[in-house]
């Protein structure tokens, strides 16, 4: 590639609405251009990195035995009706009507379409297992698109779906994807952690997120530095750490006056400092059996915020014999409280929180005096309104850190992460809803056991930059850099020798398959260097008259402090 024929459009300053480093640098490097909130053009330089990410993912998915296909962006409501998700998805799913007044949506994910494919194409157990994947545009009308490609509305996802005969086989498919993800994120050159994630209504322990470690991450991870234990704080297990601070007796003693719960009461009850911001913390039910197990049908969730009043909400029906129960959706809670969306905190209310401490839970029902009365809730609370965005990690660091790790191998620490991948065992949730069956060996129809596996292709770029940057720009891991090497000739238009040697080097690197760009724009060295450091090309070779007299070029890796002189014919090993 010759820079003169390419589009290099760097900016000195990022647009003022850019919030985080990766977003600023991607805009300044000319990798993306904003078209609307959360909607970007991927410019030629940006697309190069995206294609490299995709290539690694594709290779590893194929290696793991998955098959690529593409499912439509535009999907009919009928399929989504079959699983009930047309109604459940809420405003994140962008819907519209065609000219015949038929309902459609832009795909936020593709379980329905792929399950429909499976029920038509896979008839016999002999055809199983199967794993289909696509690398496709997704649209999610995110409540708060931000941070550039990290939380876009239109973005690229790799989504895969496995179909198996039984749960055991589905477990093998899950493990194969977990292993493939490990290889993918290793190859991408990112520092990441696989963390246990919420399994929602499905239950079990087969849901893991791959989190890139970064201070700007929106997720909070609790982990044990001495063992493999790592979990998203959303997970009940992690949340329960907080509540375990409130023994039942304490809860009894501290039961506040009906209807007049103050923040002090709540803080005391939970055993956390008053200034701690705690959100969506305690689960309560109005009925517990003799053994202390929740028996009743109504589950309540207390929402607490440091210096603000308390609120509570009825979150769903509890089935004591099942691990999962339905929780209110964020939309329902927003409606119930009239609170600002986005303040519900990373302990998502969409996530089921298991009953935390049975006795406490029982007592909490008294505590929320009137919890049994339909539609009662404490008044005067303005939780969530006009407050700065909560900083969950900072808020609960002191509550989490130092607690024993659930695996007993050390103590817990907390850090931030960016969710770049998610593997999830689905069971028969979709196949049962859509009656997708195959004939098993015994001649009977069975529902497919499914798993789904997502990777945020475009988000990976943002996450990689959050992890790898300096004051001059991006420091790409070589595997996903838009170019591996840049050749900067000094005196392009003035010196025939510089031009010839630079071009010869360019041709020879290209011939060996190195992704090289020749900066033939005839710019001053300072301009060239600033551009390529901003864009983050890992290797730079400078060719000028002075060096050529000695037969050398200047070589500098993007991460090196200084350039070194290298004989021109010995450059290649440095770059490989
Ligand atoms: P998040 O918790 O960040 O909203 P999610 O759990 O809703 O993500 P999944 O449904 O698990 O996302 O989708 C699979 C992957 O797609 C995620 O792990 C993430 O990397 C990526 N992804 C999800 N939403 C976005 C988005 N708005 N912009 C860019 N990438 C996204
Ligand atoms: Mg999401
Ligand atoms: Mg998530
Ligand atoms: Mg996820």
Automatic annotation (TrEMBL):
UniProt keyword list: Aminoacyl-tRNA synthetase, ATP-binding, Cytoplasm, Ligase, Nucleotide-binding, Protein biosynthesis
Keyword Calcium: no
Quaternary structure and partners: Homodimer.
Cell location: Cytoplasm
Gene3D superfamilies xref list: Anticodon-binding domain, Bira Bifunctional Protein, Domain 2, YbaK/aminoacyl-tRNA synthetase-associated domain
Function: Catalyzes the attachment of proline to tRNA(Pro) in a two-step reaction: proline is first activated by ATP to form Pro-AMP and then transferred to the acceptor end of tRNA(Pro). As ProRS can inadvertently accommodate and process non-cognate amino acids such as alanine and cysteine, to avoid such errors it has two additional distinct editing activities against alanine. One activity is designated as 'pretransfer' editing and involves the tRNA(Pro)-independent hydrolysis of activated Ala-AMP.
Free-text note regarding domains: Consists of three domains: the N-terminal catalytic domain, the editing domain and the C-terminal anticodon-binding domain.
MF (Gene Ontology): aminoacyl-tRNA deacylase activity; ATP binding; proline-tRNA ligase activity
Gene Ontology BP terms: prolyl-tRNA aminoacylation
Family: Belongs to the class-II aminoacyl-tRNA synthetase family. ProS type 1 subfamily.
NCBIfam families: PRK09194.1 (NF006625), proS_fam_II (TIGR00409)
Protein name per UniProt: Proline--tRNA ligase
Keyword match Nucleotidyltransferase: no
This enzyme's EC code(s): 6.1.1.15
Catalytic activity reported: tRNA(Pro) + L-proline + ATP = L-prolyl-tRNA(Pro) + AMP + diphosphate
Taxonomic classification: Bacteria, Pseudomonadati, Pseudomonadota, Betaproteobacteria, Rhodocyclales
């Amino acid at each position: 590639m010759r820079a003169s024929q390419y589009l290099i459009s760097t900016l000195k300053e990022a647009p003022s609405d850019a919030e985080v480093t990766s977003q600023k640098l991607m805009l300044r490097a000319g990798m993306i251009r904003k078209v609307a909130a959360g909607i970007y053009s991927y410019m030629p330089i940006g697309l190069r990195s995206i294609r490299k990410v995709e290539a690694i993912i594709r290779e590893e998915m194929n290696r793991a035995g998955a098959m690529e296909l593409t499912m439509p962006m535009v999907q009919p409501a009928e399929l989504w009706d079959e699983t009930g998700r047309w109604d459940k998805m809420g405003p994140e799913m962008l819907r519209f009507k065609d000219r015949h007044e038929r309902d459609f949506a832009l795909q936020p994910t593709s379980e329905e379409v792929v399950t429909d494919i499976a029920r038509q194409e896979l008839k016999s157990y002999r055809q199983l297992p199967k794993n289909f994947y696509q690398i496709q545009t997704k649209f999610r009308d995110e409540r708060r698109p931000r941070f550039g490609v990290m939380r876009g509305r239109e973005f690229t996802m790799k989504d895969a779906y496995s179909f198996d005969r039984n749960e055991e086989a589905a477990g093998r498919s899950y493990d194969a994807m977990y292993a493939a993800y490990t290889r993918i994120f290793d190859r991408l050159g990112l520092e990441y952690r696989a963390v246990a994630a919420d399994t929602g209504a499905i239950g079990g322990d087969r849901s893991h997120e791959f989190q890139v470690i970064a201070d700007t991450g929106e997720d909070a991870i609790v982990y044990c530095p001495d063992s493999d234990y790592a979990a998203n704080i959303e997970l009940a297990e992690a949340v329960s750490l907080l509540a375990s601070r409130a023994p039942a007796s304490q809860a009894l003693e501290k039961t506040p006056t009906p209807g007049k719960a103050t923040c002090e009461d709540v803080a005391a009850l939970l055993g956390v400092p008053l200034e701690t911001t705690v959100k969506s913390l305690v689960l309560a039910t109005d009925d517990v059996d003799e053994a202390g197990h929740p028996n009743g049908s109504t589950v309540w969730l207390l929402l607490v915020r440091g210096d603000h009043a308390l609120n509570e909400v009825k979150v769903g029906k509890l089935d004591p014999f099942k691990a999962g129960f339905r929780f209110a959706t964020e939309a329902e809670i927003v409606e119930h409280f009239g609170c600002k969306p986005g303040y519900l905190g990373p302990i998502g209310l969409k996530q089921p929180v298991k009953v935390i401490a049975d006795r406490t839970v029982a007592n909490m029902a008294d505590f929320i005096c009137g919890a049994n009365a339909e539609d009662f809730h404490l008044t005067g609370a303005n939780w969530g309104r006009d407050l700065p965005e909560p900083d969950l990690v900072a808020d609960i660091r002191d509550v989490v850190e130092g607690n024993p790790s659930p695996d007993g191998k050390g103590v817990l620490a907390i850090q931030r992460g960016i969710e770049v991948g998610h593997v999830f065992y689905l069971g028969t949730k979709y196949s049962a809803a859509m009656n997708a069956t195959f004939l098993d060996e015994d001649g009977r129809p069975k529902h497919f056991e499914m798993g789904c596996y997502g990777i945020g292709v475009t988000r990976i770029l943002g996450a990689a930059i959050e992890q790898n940057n300096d004051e001059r720009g991006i420091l790409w891991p070589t595997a996903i850099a838009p170019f591996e090497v840049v050749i900067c000739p000094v005196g392009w238009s003035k010196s025939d020798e510089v031009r010839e040697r630079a071009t010869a080097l360019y041709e020879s690197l290209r011939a060996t398959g190195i992704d090289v760009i020749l900066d033939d724009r005839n710019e001053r060295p300072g301009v060239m260097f600033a551009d390529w450091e901003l864009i983050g090309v890992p290797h730079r070779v400078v060719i000028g008259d002075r060096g050529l007299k000695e037969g050398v070029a200047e070589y500098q890796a993007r991460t090196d402090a200084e350039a070194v002189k290298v004989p021109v014919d010995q450059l290649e090993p440095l770059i490989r």
